[in-house]
Amino acid sequence: MDKVEILVICRHEGILQTIIRLVNANPDWNATGASADDEAIAEFAARPFKLVLLGSGIEKESEDRLCTAFRARDPEIIIVQHYGGGSGLLAAEIYQALN
Length: 99
What we know:
Elements: E1 4-9, H1 13-24, E2 29-34, H2 37-46, E3 51-54, H3 60-73, E4 78-81, H4 87-98
Parallel strand pairs: 1-2, 1-3, 3-4
Helix pairs in contact: 2-3
């Protein structure tokens, strides 16, 4: 079974690295991180993702731009907002979005 590819976007580098580490702790998931809009859009264009996880610090204008770009490329993309709450909440949010 292939791993579920997850694109994580977060403005705070330390938090981004923590989210990536927590996501990658699940052997069925593979996280790729981006902290800037253009970087996230380029990553999304480079390969297929099943889920996009929007972390902290993303302004409404950027969120709208990102969601529009991702849905234009893949109308079925799952987009989840994650604002913290620990690894248990993060995993629950991902499981819920995927099912």
